Amino acid sequence: MAPKLSLRLRATAINEALAGAHPDARVMLDHRNALELLVATILAAQCTDKKVNEVTPALFKRYRTAEDFARADPAELEAMIRPTGFFRQKTKSILAASRDIVEQFGGRVPDTIEDLTRLHGVGRKTANVVLGAIFGQPAIIVDTHFRRVAGRLGLTASDDPDDIERDVQKILPAEEWTAFSHRITFHGRRVCFARKPNCPGCVVNHLCPSAFKV
Prior knowledge:
The chain is mainly alpha-helical. It has eleven helices and no strands. It folds into two domains: 7-26 and 140-207, Endonuclease Iii, domain 2; 34-133, Hypothetical protein, domain 2 (Endonuclease III, domain 1, Orthogonal Bundle), CATH 1.10.340.30.
């Protein structure tokens, strides 16, 4: 049973335990710059990082700048990213975001949440991935794993990504947001599975109100 700690203290204890359990937690999408990570994150929707990393080497060799992507032939781009699934919608998002980057930001990926989410096809999750990994800004990255695990841990009572982001921001210092996001995601991938979480093997089961109940 989770001890009766304040939410802030429990979140801090969870963060410390997960830091020890997942010291390699980080962005798993291969990239060399902000544009590549932005595109890779768009491709990662409903797709594994492993599959995206198989596709992007050829993609980033063919398209090196936002201008290259903005001028890309949709059919050619679709063919290159087809293995990631939902390739037609992803092509539209990549083309539209790249055009916005060229037309509004001189070809450089912007570095604020406000400007990134102004790009067509870029939501807060994608924007926060880029902000945290490239620009070193504190960012809560709410993906499927984060939403599930944060809910089970009782860090939020909401299922809405924006609400979850705000809830977690309130209980952890900003300098921990990005690392905590990656730790939670890794924990969801390795331990706190959607269907059969490995509660006996979980380093935070004593801090989790859902432990052994899912």
